[in-house]
Amino acid sequence: MNRHPDDRPSHALVADLERTLGDPGAAGGPFSHAETVEHEERGALPPGAVDLIRSWGFARYLVPEEFGGGLRNLEQLVLLTRSLARRNLTVAVMFGSALLGVNPVWLWGDEEQRARVAQGLLGGDLACFAVSEPDHGSDLGTNETTAVPDGDGYLLTGEKWPVGNATRGRFLTVYAAVEGAGPSLLLVDKQALPPGSWDNHPFVRTVGLRGHDLSGITFRDTKVPAGALLGRPGGGLTGILQVLQITRTAIGALSIGTMDSVLRIALRHARERVLYGQEIYRIPVIRRHLVRSHLDLLIAECVTLPVARSLSVAPSRLSLWSSVVKYLVPTLGEEVVQEAGRVLGARGYLREGVAGGVFQKLQRDHAIASVFEGTTHVNLHSIASQLPAVARVADRPAPGADTLLRRLFDWSDEAPVWQPSGRALRLTNASEDEITRGWGPAVAEARLIAERQVPAAEADALRKVLDAWSARRAAFYTRIAAESLDPATTDGQDRATEHCVHHAAASCLYTWLYSFAEERATAPGTGWLVLVLQRLLRRLDPTAEPDESLPPWLEELMFARLDGPEYFSLQAVKAAAAAAG
Questions:
Q1: Where would I find the Acyl-CoA dehydrogenase/oxidase N-terminal domain in this sequence (predicted)?
Q2: pTM surpassing 0.90?
């Protein structure tokens, strides 16, 4: 008896999608680099790309299991999106825009709304989040779109632009000022709108994501039913801020997928390109670019996946943690793209040649990751506004922290099934941040493990880097707790930036503690942690001297994953460590 794909673990599901989409470096197929570049040059998607994704059933994972789909949890969707994004970011963003458009329905919709939207998505329809307006952008407090009561419904008037999937999408979550209630969210179904009372705008020409439907829509006294309201009347602004927490986290998948692709392209080029009588990979500075990129990808994974799990485990923490992901992971992605460009040299500037010229597309496409769902500055402001409360309790044990951290960072179990509820999300974490507050106990445990289980060289290096981190951390949070912090200042933004790096360091340490228990007695099983902590420390202290040598196991790992179907990932590190043991 064949098992339903939804019954399989997430990694098995991803492996099936990988087989369906094929090797992007090979010739042929709508997701090959050659096909992607050829049609992207014309501002189009490769013929058959969207059909292939739909026939595989990707849309099922935009609909929670509770409402008849296949979506178990956000971690599952992040892993699937990573697979899609490493081939064609434009297609990934199309489905990501649909997710943003329907999440308000899953969180606050009534039974009829959820059933109708679920049926539409499973049947191939798209959705969008119609919030932005031409003159206001991310200023959500200013909203000129209005909904005036009219009989058994509302008359909707206003313009939303730019909006992903505004033209192709059937369903729209529209942010409008409802007369007598205030800013609210409305579910609009184009199929039910009176003809002639609305129209779509032409697609906007963009630097990247060519072929994506970035357009707009204008309503002119468009009649929508009273049942269009999503959630509490007047709760629109709060709803937007909450729903963005989910997609901010999911954006990490776009960056990690891009990192995988550009690192793979650069590493293969470094092996094939011969200069001065040798592969350019043998040039020390080239190897350094590649190793740093690989470590940054591992860091991004350590940061993204636990926060994705938190939607099922601790959704009230997302107000802070999602902004950390949204700032740090696209930033790491941008840097990995730059490092890969340095390896490619002049070849990285060409729209043909290496990997079919896809590098320039990846470079242009990924630039949007730090912009949508709140720009870098918007997310740093959100983090900075919460930092004083976190800093005041930074060294106090968080009740139940060990249990929560284990649920977030232990890979031995699948993430729990997400049960959508808008009531579970919060606008602020208050002082609750188990990830940074758990640093002290985690370091103490790591020291004991290093003494008893870890090879001498790795144990010594681990103790040194943990000491450096602990000293820096203590000074950082003590200063914030003692001083006032204005989130709007450059100092506030800088402090938020550093907090994100402390969050990342702690996330790497917990991943090692909870998911590498069987492997940490080997060189790769602990060596990866030392390397990523050294790499992160250098982000805060340029004088910190990371180990620039390339351990043999890391080199072997990179080349093994280059020629195989597996990702560059911590799962690969774990497998290498298990083999070494």
A1: 38-124
A2: yes
